[in-house]
């Protein structure tokens, strides 16, 4: 079979396949969905445009979607997060020969430029023949952070307006690149994204930042198709964001710097799910952790968990390590970075790089950048002092390490798979029965959340207690669940 793809090096496929094989063993949720739906093929006819870190774990997700009947095109949602061997194995496919590619078109490699990144995002929608006939193109999006969804929405918006606006002086560099990508697209086909938007049945979104964008679109009445918020499945955000980061944050810091964390002072900005996992991990290494928060509830939680809660300005010259985890912007300013101790380590695990003012840092007169190794740079101030910045302010757990481990991603990706099945079957675009998903944002029903958790119990030797009928009646719930009301917070 031949198809278009662009990755770093196809000869890495064997190394990738070994890692995928081991990951499958650690991903019981995905593997049991493959078994459950092998015959039914609920994703037959689905053409999924996927934008999510092209890691080994994502390879298992992609091959699960294919095993359930889907056709897939894939890009990474971050310029640094691709594991090149995983990308190669996915392109080659499980049968493992480069003479006859049986896999999936992937457009992803570690260390993309921003121009390349947006080119890859466009490629996941470039299904053969789609410009002549949109109905042969993507009909589902699987997104992480919302960039694929953004491309379709902005593209369709500009096409309706008859052109792409000029960039404003203060527009960030990345936004200029998006505008250029869409300008190019419109010259090739002035109605490309309008056609794509009309055929998309829905999007399933992985992360907090992407979900926030979806709710904004829905609130403004601009969401063009239904969306399932996968992030807020309990078995996603309360596991991946927290326990996943608890593993992959220290992994990234250690691979990048080899600095001993015990005894050091670390600031964690934000005490949501990712912040909680980060603070726990750093404390586990013996660091003294200080938390910053804007939300009194989260600040109180941090205090009761035993952390000092402070304002960054008051501690910026004391800490050895600064980690942002908020999904917000301008958490650490260039001015604050100049006040840090010499060789302080600065990194981010929130979705986008604007948590740290990288643009402001680059504009400091006389500042110098020294590459220590890939994704580790020392920024030397004119005063002589320096800071160590990881992954240029982008997700350091994926840039400096390999992201979350398989077991926790099995839980997240089981939710993704179930959400794809739900939306593909019941989007109002094609389904007018009861329970059709309209162009709004939904979470999966609690019973499915409980199912995802259940799929992971055996592997950990968990023996669940079963409710008796009598106990269930007393609590007013069903023996088979759901066990909690919607408002329960875990
Ligand atoms: P969350 O909403 O639970 O937590 C964010 C916290 O940051 C909130 O408590 C909020 O009050 C606080 N915050 C916002 N602005 C702040 C400011 N200026 N100063 C101090 N605190 C502030 O969100 P969650 O799930 O923890 O996700 C955070 C980010 O991490 C998102 O961008 C999400 O997409 C990303 N993420 C990254 C992962 C990774 O592997 N690196 C995994 C999962 C999520």
TrEMBL record:
One of its GO terms (molecular function) is adenosylhomocysteinase activity. SMART domains: AdoHcyase, AdoHcyase_NAD. Pathway: Amino-acid biosynthesis; L-homocysteine biosynthesis; L-homocysteine from S-adenosyl-L-homocysteine: step 1/1. It catalyses: S-adenosyl-L-homocysteine + H2O = L-homocysteine + adenosine. Substrate binds at residues 55, 144, 206, 236, 240. It is found in: Cytoplasm. It is an enzyme of class 3 (hydrolase). The keyword NAD applies. Transmembrane segments: none annotated. NAD(+) binds at residues 207-209, 241, 270-277, 293, 298, 397, 404. InterPro entries: Adenosylhomocyst_ase-like_sf, Adenosylhomocysteinase-like, Ado_hCys_hydrolase_NAD-bd, NAD(P)-bd_dom_sf, S-Ado-L-homoCys_hydrolase_CS. PANTHER family: ADENOSYLHOMOCYSTEINASE. Belongs to the adenosylhomocysteinase family. NCBIfam families: ahcY, PRK05476.2-3. This is Adenosylhomocysteinase. The gene is ahcY.
């Amino acid at each position: 079979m031949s198809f278009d793809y662009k990755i770093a090096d196809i000869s890495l496929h064997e190394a990738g396949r070994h890692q995928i094989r081991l990951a499958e063993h650690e991903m019981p949720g995905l593997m049991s969905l493959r078994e459950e739906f092998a015959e039914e093929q609920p994703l037959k006819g689905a053409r999924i445009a996927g934008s999510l870190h092209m890691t080994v774990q994502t390879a298992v997700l992609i091959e699960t979607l294919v095993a359930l009947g889907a056709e897939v095109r894939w890009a990474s949602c971050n310029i640094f997060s691709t594991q090149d061997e995983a990308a190669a194995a996915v392109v080659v496919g499980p049968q493992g020969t480069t003479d006859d590619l049986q896999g999936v078109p992937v457009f992803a490699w570690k260390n993309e430029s921003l121009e390349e990144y947006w080119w890859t995002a466009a490629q996941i929608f470039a299904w053969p023949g789609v410009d002549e006939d949109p109905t042969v193109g993507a009909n589902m999006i699987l997104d992480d952070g919302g960039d694929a969804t953004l491309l379709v929405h902005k593209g369709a918006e500009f096409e309706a307006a008859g052109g792409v606006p000029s960039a404003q002086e203060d527009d960030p560099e990345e936004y200029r690149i998006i505008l250029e990508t869409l300008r190019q697209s419109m010259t090739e086909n002035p109605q490309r994204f309008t056609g794509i938007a009309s055929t998309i049945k829905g999007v399933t979104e992985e992360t907090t930042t992407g979900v926030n964008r979806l709710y904004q679109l829905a609130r403004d009445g601009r969401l063009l198709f239904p969306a399932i918020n996968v992030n807020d499945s309990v078995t996603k955000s309360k596991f991946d964001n927290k326990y996943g980061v608890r593993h992959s944050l220290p992994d990234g810091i250690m691979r990048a710097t080899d600095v001993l964390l015990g005894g050091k002072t670390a600031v964690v900005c934000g005490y949501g799910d990712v912040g909680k996992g980060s603070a726990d991990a750093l404390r586990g290494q013996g660091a003294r952790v200080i938390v910053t928060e804007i939300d009194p509830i989260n600040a109180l939680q941090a205090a009761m968990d035993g952390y000092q809660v402070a304002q960054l300005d008051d501690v910026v010259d004391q800490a050895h390590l600064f980690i942002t985890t908020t999904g917000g912007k301008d958490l650490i300013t260039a001015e604050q970075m100049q006040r840090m101790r010499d060789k302080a380590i600065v990194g981010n695990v929130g979705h986008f790089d604007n948590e740290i003012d990288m643009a402001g840092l680059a504009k400091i007169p006389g500042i110098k950048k020294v590459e220590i190794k890939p994704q580790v740079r020392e920024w030397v101030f004119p005063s002589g002092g320096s800071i160590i910045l990881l992954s240029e302010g982008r997700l350091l757990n994926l840039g400096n390490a390999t992201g979350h481990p398989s077991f926790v991603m099995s839980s997240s990706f089981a939710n993704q798979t179930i959400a794809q099945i739900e939306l593909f079957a019941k989007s109002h675009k094609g389904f007018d029965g009861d329970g059709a998903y309209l162009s709004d944002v939904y979470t999966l029903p609690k019973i499915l959340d409980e199912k995802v958790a259940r799929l992971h119990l055996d592997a950990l030797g968990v023996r669940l207690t079963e409710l008796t009928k009598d106990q269930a009646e007393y609590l007013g719930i069903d023996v088979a669940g759901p066990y909690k009301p919607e408002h329960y917070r875990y």
